[in-house]
Amino acid sequence: MHPLGLGVKQPELALRSPDFYSNGIFWSLRLYLKEDPKSDVGVFLQSYCDSRNSQTRKLEIAVKFTMYVVTTATDNICHSSGQELQTLDSTFILGHKMGCFSISQEKLMSRPFLYIPDNVLTIGCELNWAFQSQNMGTLPSPKNPFPLKPNSLDKFFNNPKFNDVKISTGGKVFHATKWVLCDASDVFEQLIFSESPDGRNTINIEDINPVAFEGVLRYIFSKVLPDLHIEEHAEDWFKITHKFELHALQNVLQKGFFLQLKPSNAIMCLKTADRYSVADLRPKCKQYLRENWNEVAANHGLEKFTICHATATVEDYAELLKSFALVNEITESFPGRIKSRLFKARKSKPDSDSFIAFFIKPIVLEFFYL
């Protein structure tokens, strides 16, 4: 077993980047991952030398390198090595691993829109190497890759000099390009060209958050997302993607927000997915609620669904009403037959241990498996 706790010989997931070649040596990155979300992602720099004319070759090299997660975040995830000496043997076709880079899965998933946008993890590597026959003392360290270079398109974004349409919303004015908007959404095309073949130069949009809209425009323009969090941003961003039918962005959002689900926000996320027709996120929220129902109930002030006897106290009935309120919160979009059953349950007087078992739990389970 590797010190990371990863089964290197039989990992649950092993990925290898394409090779890149330099002066007789092939280089690549290897990634090892376990399904356990508390385990780390292991990344190695791997190298091997080619065999020329079927002759066995051995090379002794010195290497210095930096590996990092490519992101716009300010708290960078990176690993810089000291000088490593390696003997590369062309008969060892699996290559030689060096420089373990350990990345916390929990950290990646805590900020998915920065570290793994659209569920893609991008690893960068900068390295310097030399043959051992050369003077190793002069081998420089790789340049610090941070801060990453800004997007080359940034100077064009929301700049009136380079754009041909103004969008006004929430007291703010944004500058954009007609063809970029129309390429992203048929709704934008209809807004711009519905009245004139030359298109409108000004568009007024009501009832959306201007801060969220600026973020959506930036994504349309350069495919860059800010550090989104489900509690703060899901409602506003899904509202905009629904209004303008930005299906590609909606797909990216639901992947990231799903990774942020927890007992305190799962019901809110489910209701948002229902409200804005986020088809793939809705069943995932229901699955999360089904698998983590005890934690969700506890987070809403319930240790369990209360069972009231005929001799129940006022406090018992108060807890039962909390149970009803929680179930009702996640059943706003129930089919009529289930809402009817919930209504009957609320009108009945609980006088046996079987009351909750026969009414509340089947209602919740039926909802989860719809």
From TrEMBL:
Q: Which Pfam families match?
A: BTB
Q: Which CDD domains match?
A: BACK, BTB_POZ_ZBTB_KLHL-like, MATH
GO MF annotations in UniProt: ubiquitin protein ligase binding
Membrane-crossing ranges are none
Q: Which SUPFAM superfamilies match?
A: POZ domain, TRAF domain-like
* Domain of life assignment: Eukaryota
Give every BTB domain span: 163-222
Which InterPro entries does the record cross-reference, listed alphabetically? BTB/POZ_dom, MATH/TRAF_dom, SKP1/BTB/POZ_sf, TRAF-like
- Please name the GO terms of the biological process aspect recorded for this protein, alphabetically: proteasome-mediated ubiquitin-dependent protein catabolic process; regulation of proteolysis
Where is coiled-coil annotated?
none
GO cellular component annotations of the record: cytoplasm; nucleus
Descriptive protein name = BTB domain-containing protein
Organism the protein comes from: Daphnia pulex
